[in-house]
Automatic annotation (TrEMBL):
Keyword field: ATP-binding, Cytoplasm, Ligase, Nucleotide-binding, Purine biosynthesis
Origin: domain of life: Bacteria
Gene that produces this protein: purM
Cross-referenced PANTHER family: TRIFUNCTIONAL PURINE BIOSYNTHETIC PROTEIN ADENOSINE-3, TRIFUNCTIONAL PURINE BIOSYNTHETIC PROTEIN ADENOSINE-3-RELATED
Reaction catalysed by this enzyme: 2-formamido-N(1)-(5-O-phospho-beta-D-ribosyl)acetamidine + ATP = 5-amino-1-(5-phospho-beta-D-ribosyl)imidazole + ADP + phosphate + H(+)
Subcellular location: Cytoplasm
Protein name: Phosphoribosylformylglycinamidine cyclo-ligase
Species per Swiss-Prot/TrEMBL record: Nonomuraea muscovyensis
Length: 341
């Protein structure tokens, strides 16, 4: 007699994973979350939006790409969920939206309850750091399609912004100052190139390199910094005109998206020193500057465009919150491009 379990799907393991993650998910709860006894949907009390005159809902979805492969190889699963939150919710804050809630989806070859709970625990922690609630998710077992130790994850988030307070290119003016907000490392972009470098250079994730103060794998799996609460607080404190989340494409490509068509951002490469992990990747991989610029954040995880008078107060304010920031460049007449001097 055949069965679902004989086909490779363990229903009891899935139920145990849900039980293990419940306490972790609860830590991300917001007061607007409403319990759904069936568990089929996540509920959020929309009456919270009544405090807005014209609320605009913002939504974003993303994954963490092939960084999950390094997490699997290194056996570290408790922070990859933070990466997912950073990729999804930090996109929302670019327009000034407050993240409200998020859902996740995990596909795996075999449900290992403890591993799934670690992954979801990271997602819940990321949501907590972003001020959002993790209101639901799904874990799917795909035997035959994925190996027993393989998994992938994706998520979607929703936020809200007052229409009159929405940030973006229309607010940017000539003379504005561009601030760089420090990344925590490689974040979650460029890992196909990272894995190529590791493979071609014969580098182990356990390697202790002189440029780094911890094993290479630990450095590469440092979770993505969550900027949401810092960026929202900064916009309340000083005159912020735009943000740019620095993901795939690097600083120039992503910052260009937050500029109007008649202005450029001139950036000063000497204003900061990229973290050592980027030197490691460039050196061992023989990667030229142009490819490094187009692939990685190089230490700039978020850029803020602020009024000239707000630059120094903004840097001080972020420093008090533990987020290093600096003057990265300035906005000048142009054609809608961010570029280095």
């Amino acid at each position: 007699m055949t069965s679902y379990e004989a086909a490779g799907v363990d229903i009891e393991a899935g139920e145990r994973a849900v039980a293990l993650m419940k306490d972790k998910v609860a830590r991300s709860r917001r007061p607007e979350v409403v319990d759904d006894a069936s568990g089929f949907a996540g509920l959020f009390d929309a009456s919270a939006l009544l405090r807005f005159q014209r609320p605009l809902l913002a939504t974003s979805t993303d994954g963490v790409g092939t960084k999950v492969m390094l997490a699997q190889q290194y056996g570290k699963h408790d922070t990859i969920g933070i990466d997912l939150v950073g990729m999804v919710l930090d996109d929302l804050v670019v327009c000034g939206a407050e993240p409200l809630f998020m859902t996740d989806y995990i596909a795996c070859g075999k449900v290992v309850p403890e591993r799934v709970a670690e992954i979801v625990g990271g997602i819940a922690e990321g949501c907590r750091l972003a001020g959002a609630a993790l209101v639901g998710g799904e874990t799917a077992e795909h035997p035959g399609a994925m190996g027993p130790d393989e998994y992938d994850l994706a998520g979607a988030g929703t936020g809200v912004v007052e229409a009159s307070a929405m940030l973006g290119p229309s607010r940017v003016r000539a003379g504005d100052v561009v601030l760089g907000l420090a990344s925590s490392g490689v974040h979650s972009n460029g890992y196909s190139l990272v894995r190529h470098v590791l493979r071609e250079a014969g580098l182990s994730l356990d390697a202790d390199l002189p440029e780094l103060d911890r094993p290479l794998g630990a450095e590469l799996l440092e979770p993505t910094r969550i900027y949401s609460l810092d960026c929202l607080a900064l916009a309340r404190e000083v005159e912020v005109h735009a943000y740019a989340h620095i993901t795939g494409g690097g600083v120039e490509a992503n910052l260009s998206r937050s500029l109007p068509g008649d202005l450029d951002a001139l950036l000063d490469r000497s204003s900061w020193t990229p973290p050592a992990v980027f030197e490691v990747l460039a050196g061992h991989g023989g990667i030229g500057r142009r490819d490094m610029d187009r692939t990685f954040n190089l230490g700039v995880g978020m850029a803020a465009v602020v009024a000239p008078s707000a630059a120094d107060p903004a840097v001080r304010f972020l420093a008090e919150r533990g987020l290093p920031a600096w003057v990265l460049g300035e906005v000048v007449p142009g054609s809608g491009e961010a570029r280095y001097r």
